[in-house]
Each structure stands twice: as structure tokens, then as C-alpha cells.
Design brief:
two-stranded antiparallel ribbon; nine-stranded mixed β-sheet; 11 helices; alpha/beta
Length: about 325
């Protein structure tokens, strides 16, 4: 990709910009983001109860990203990006042109997260040759009953077979694609973690044991696992609160924004319903939005009172990383 060497210099500028923000209340971003999440669609084939898309709680319009919009994003940001996530809300593989997207981001570490229901032998072969660098497949149980407790309308055997299909495609095509199984730990499936580990090892996949987010903390008691190290929340005076001090700073506002399917730029992946729109790429360039008045005002709110912002009160900064490292060390 032309001009790709802008990445290292941009990373230094972005880091410096963030540091001056936390020390001197600088609201501008000197560099461009190092990663971005692009929502191919917010449609989904499942009805997971704590997912904004699947639960039906999402208020915003549903649709599919126009590939020309995606091309313009890659054209403007590609030379700065290290990571590109082709998912946010919804199931990305539902996009009618899904296989056209990964190859357009050559030279960027591109990741897709899927619920695994579309990993046929044919699709797995295409994924292995797509230029995609990492595929995350959600598998939140090791039998149909446990799996469908959360993955409503999901088919455990279909997902399990799909994981085998992609593992075989990676092997036979000598693909550099990394396969990761994501296991959303809750009170119903935590006893199956050893089985999930064995299945991951069998298919050559890594495994990530992820803490579970709930839409409303009053529902946390239903889902929180007995093992407290896998809990995203802690109980205090009969209520559940996020395990975070929620300091008045946030790397995401300088490093990794989200772009919805219809071109809205939002601050982070916790803004599921796009409540805080920073700008519209159908009208303005990303650079204009990145340092526009909406972004500066939101950065100011975070730097002066993050706890007052609804989407911030469910933020996992510093929580999932700890779990991921622990699970990694146990695999060694």
C-alpha cells in the first residue's frame, strides 16, 4: 500500500498527543488512529440476549456498508493503520459482498469476528485465501444446550463443523490466517472451559476466555460466573459495578474509533447504538471529523468526568487483557 511507512511516525504523534491530553487537557489528536473498527452490517442471524443487535434493543437503522464507502476509508486511513477490524455489531458474513472487503486492505492486519454459522467448506477456502490475518469465532459452550443458552437460535454442531472447516482450509492452503476461538464465560458454561481448550488445541486455534458484558447491571447476577476472575463486574452493596476505576482518560479517543455501516464515526466499540456521533463520512473526510468540534467536546467530557458518560460506565479497559494473559499463560 502506497505510503505505508507513515505508520511509525504517526504512532509516535498519536502517543504524544494522548500524553499531552492527559497532562495538559489537549483536545486535538496530532496523529491519525492506529486502528479502526468498521461495521459491515448490524444485521444478525442470532438473538443473543445481551447483544444490542441480537436482543432487538438497538434503535438505529439496520443496513449494509457500501463498498465504495469502505474503499474511501481505506484510501484515507490505510497508510496509518496497523489494525483493521471488520466487525462491530451484527454478523459481518451476512454482508452480500463480504469477500470483497478483506483484500482491499492489503498490508493492514485485518480481523473478522463471526458467530461461525457461515463457515462452509467453500467459504472457509475463500477466507483462507482472502488476505485476512485473523478470524475470531464465537463458541460459548460445548454442547447444544449450553451453547444456545446465550447464542439463541444458534446451531452448535454447525459452528463446530465450521471451525473444523476453516482449520482444514488453513492447513491445506498453507494460509497465514490465524484462528481464534472466543469463549464468552458465564455461569452456564464455565464448567466447559477445559473442553473448549481441548477443542481449540485439536483444531490448531488459540482460545480467548472473555468476560461477559450485560446491557443492564441488574441482569448481571443471571450471567456472572462463580469464578470471580472471569467476572467483568464486582458486587458492592447488592449491586454490580464494572471492575474499573474509570479514570478520566481513554486511549480509544486517540487510537481506535469505530465507523458504522452507514458512515457514522463514533468514539468506541461501547457506543453500540451510536449515541455519540462525531461526524458522517458521507459528508466529511475522516481527518476533518477526527479533530472536529464534536470529537474535541467528547474528549473534554472524558478528560473531566468520564463516569458521567453512560457508554463509559461499561468500559472494560484493563479487564479483558488480564483474562487473556492468564488464559495464554495456562496454555504454555
Amino acid at each position: 500500500m502506497a505510503g505505508r511507512n507513515a505508520g511509525p511516525v504517526n504512532a509516535i504523534r498519536a502517543a504524544y498527543s494522548f500524553m499531552t491530553a492527559t497532562t495538559m487537557q489537549n483536545l486535538s489528536a496530532a496523529g491519525m488512529p492506529l486502528s479502526v473498527s468498521v461495521e459491515l452490517t448490524n444485521h444478525c442471524n442470532l438473538n443473543c440476549p445481551e447483544c444490542a443487535s441480537g436482543s432487538g434493543l438497538m434503535k438505529r437503522e439496520r443496513g449494509f456498508m457500501d463498498i465504495e464507502l469502505y474503499k474511501s476509508v481505506v484510501s484515507e486511513l490505510g497508510r496509518y493503520l496497523y489494525y483493521l477490524n471488520l466487525y462491530f455489531q451484527g454478523e459481518p458474513m451476512l454482508h452480500p459482498q463480504f469477500f470483497s472487503f478483506p483484500g482491499l486492505a492489503d498490508g493492514i492486519y485485518t480481523v473478522v469476528s463471526t458467530n461461525g454459522h457461515f463457515l462452509s467448506v467453500e467459504n472457509s477456502g475463500k477466507l483462507a485465501e482472502s488476505g485476512l490475518k485473523k478470524l475470531i469465532v464465537s463458541l460459548d459452550g460445548m454442547d447444544q444446550d449450553i451453547y444456545s443458552t446465550y447464542r439463541k437460535n444458534g446451531d452448535f454442531e454447525k459452528v463446530k463443523s465450521g471451525i473444523r472447516n476453516i482449520a482444514e482450509a488453513i492447513r491445506t492452503k498453507h494460509s497465514p490466517l490465524r484462528l481464534e476461538i472466543q469463549f464468552l464465560v458465564n455461569r452456564f458454561n464455565e464448567h466447559q472451559i477445559p473442553q473448549a481448550r481441548r477443542f481449540a488445541a485439536e483444531t490448531g486455534a488459540s482460545i480467548r476466555l472473555k468476560s461477559m458484558q450485560v446491557n443492564d447491571t441488574k441482569d448481571a447476577v443471571k450471567w456472572m460466573p462463580a469464578n470471580r476472575k472471569f467476572r467483568r463486574y464486582e458486587e458492592e452493596d447488592g449491586e454490580f459495578r464494572i471492575k474499573s476505576r474509570l479514570p478520566d482518560r481513554c486511549l480509544r479517543l486517540w487510537f481506535n474509533p469505530v465507523i458504522t455501516w452507514n458512515g457514522k464515526v463514533i468514539p468506541c466499540c461501547f457506543d453500540k447504538d451510536a449515541e455519540f456521533v462525531m461526524g458522517d463520512l458521507n459528508r466529511d473526510s475522516f481527518r476533518t471529523i477526527w479533530n472536529g468540534p464534536a470529537y474535541k467536546e467528547f474528549r473534554k467530557q472524558v478528560l473531566t468526568g468520564r463516569r458521567k458518560i453512560g457508554i463509559c460506565r461499561n468500559c472494560t479497559s484493563g479487564i479483558n487483557l488480564k483474562i487473556s494473559r492468564a488464559s495464554y499463560l495456562r496454555r504454555q
